[in-house]
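# step 3/5: fold
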Amino acid sequence: MIGRLRGIPEGDPLSGDWVLDVNGVGYEVTTPIGTLGRLTPDDDGRVTLHVHTNVREDAFELYGFASAMERSAFRTLISINKVGPKLALNVLSAISVEELMVAVERQHAAALTRIPGVGKKTAERMLLELSDKLPALGIAAMGGGAPLPRTAAAPVRTVTGPGSVVVDALVRMGFKPAAAERAVAGLDDLDRPLADLIREALAILSS
């Protein structure tokens, strides 16, 4: 199994599906949207991904994450009934692990139902099953010791509904909330795939 890769990112990291060139070998990886923006490249442009390897009869899939804690959260999410890799990636593209922990602690279903693909019943099941699992993530990620401190809930955005997911994703990529909200205000048809919305929002921010 592959647990970590260090290499040069290629392709379109924004989409979540990209290639990591490791000494001339290109590994196809799927990551939460915005992962590249949370990585710190070395002087030679290489980044390190924490990898979850998923082996099926018809596929060998690599899922990459900016931190061991994100990978632990992904593994915890896919252990939930009817939550597969795609939905788990949607969750981690929209909110941070710390925000997920806060939502679980407060049993805040609304923080999850605004994520694409998460309905009310799925959110309730996730909150129920994660209640006993997420508190240990800080310890699991660090290999022992005290768990990571839980952060306060993210400030309420003026943008609501599907647009708020895009705002949060842009903020996680390093943009200021006000700028992210202005970009989202310029989007049409928010019922499109999250990657398409973020790509268009980035074009607005760079114009």
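# step 4/5: annotate
Residues 139-157 have pLDDT under 50 and may be disordered.
# step 5/5: archive (pending)
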